[in-house]
Design brief:
Elements lengths: L1 H10 L3 E4 L3 H7 L9 E4 H4 L6 H11 L8 E3 L2 H10 L5 E5 L12 E4 L9 H7 L1
Parallel strand pairs: 1-2, 3-4, 4-5
Amino acid sequence: MPAALKLQGDNYKLVALSNADNSFLDISIPKLGAEWHAVFTAEQAGTYKPRLQAFEYMLDRLNATPEDFLHVSSHPLYDHIPMYNMGFRDLVMLDRNAEPFAPGYDVLTRPSSPTWNRTNFPQFLILL
């Protein structure tokens, strides 16, 4: 995945909003091999996703709106549903068959296998 993320980071502003704490992301984000425009943690936001305050913190810090994002995640409960409710519309669900997705949300779903999985996920990013 680092090569695909690096390619995306060369062309787009990558932003992470994680429920992890600062010390974990200080170690793990550099291993992804891409330039990150911004990395936000629940520790910084003072709340955990799916609380809307975490997303509001990110938007405020970036001086951005939901229209500014294409979001890729495999966590509907923690990411897609609250983001959709806040007005984010460019949402991609990486379906790893781990969490069910509630009907009624307009989210592009990509199966993780056999077409999309950990080994060929970089091609998915390139297609975006």
